[in-house]
């Protein structure tokens, strides 16, 4: 810092001192951009102000269907030629009610244990593979929202069974 100023500030001050008399001329023509031969948009539009031109309305004017127009009670909405009238929208049929897959109805511990078929010969890697394959068809994020409660119950029970089998494997490996 030079005399209480940063280097950048001291350079700016020196440039202002060198260019002192031309700064007064630049202030008088404030709507001009240095380096451009024309002014800003309000100068180029030949006396039409930007708010009165309503550039946002151009989007709505180019839509193919009837849109909201600012109308009063005295003036009816503008009529369109017959070729511009929108075609009637066909009725959308409601989606059929989803059917729950049969495996999601089985939430008993014995049913899920039978599906997993955990045995004493399964390795920890084998148990992890069983968890992943079970989750592919039963994870709550992969089923319809109406059936997520059943899928959550099934995944919870399967995770408990697999976690218990892994605990037993690690205990027996320590002995």
Summed up, the helix count is 9
The description of the largest β-sheet is:
none
End-to-end CA span? 72 Å
Roughly how many Å is the radius of gyration?
A: 37 Å
Give me the strand/helix succession: HHHHHHHHH
* Beta-strand percentage range: under 5%
Assembly category: single chain
Mean pLDDT, to the nearest integer, reads 77
Helix content: 40-55%
SSE-based structural type: mainly alpha
Total count of strands: 0
Low-confidence stretches: none
Q: Which term fits the overall shape?
A: flat
3D architecture notes:
The chain has 175 residues and is mainly alpha-helical. It has a domain at 102-174. The chain is 50% helix and 0% strand. The chain has helices at residues 7-18, 20-28, 41-44, 50-53, 57-61, 102-105, 109-116, 124-138, 148-174. Helix 7 packs across helix 9 (148-174) and helix 8 runs antiparallel to helix 9. The relative contact order is 0.07. The model has no long low-confidence stretch (mean pLDDT 77).
Which structural traits does this protein have?
175 residues, mainly alpha, 50% helix
Quick overview:
With 175 residues, the protein is an all-alpha fold. Helices cover 50% and strands 0% of the residues.
What are the SSEs and their pairings?
Layout: H1 7-18, H2 20-28, H3 41-44, H4 50-53, H5 57-61, H6 102-105, H7 109-116, H8 124-138, H9 148-174
